[in-house]
Design a protein that fits this description.
Layout lengths: L4 H21 L5 H8 L3 H14 L6 H9 L3 H7 L5 H12 L3
Helix pairs in contact: 2-6, 3-4
Length: about 100
């Protein structure tokens, strides 16, 4: 099956929205855990969103892109999250040291 470019873009956009909704619902999963396991987190997604807006000459602040991904102001998100444990920090450091 061949899918045209416009439909591919629509599908990819729908997947992005679904991923963001999933991450918003999973507040129990901390960014450090995402970074350790997958190599990206909510901040990465918001940075990528801002990068793409910038590339198209669209005004989107870092705070706006984060709020889009988090579903709330970033400062509110941070207040709701516990500090990373020493175990999480060690796992993150180990994952960052491994070649990719």
């Amino acid at each position: 099956m061949t899918i045209d470019t416009a439909t591919t873009t629509e599908l990819e956009a729908a997947v992005f929205r679904r991923l963001v909704a999933h991450l918003r619902a999973r507040e129990d999963v901390q960014n450090i855990d995402l970074m350790t396991m997958a190599g990206f987190c909510r901040n990465c997604l918001s940075n990528w969103l801002k990068d793409e807006a910038d590339a198209r000459g669209l005004e989107l602040s870092k705070d706006e892109s984060r709020e889009h991904v988090y579903g709330m102001p970033y400062e509110d998100w941070k207040r709701r999250q516990p500090e990373a444990t020493p175990e999480q920090q060690a796992a993150f450091a180990k994952a960052q040291a491994e070649p990719h």
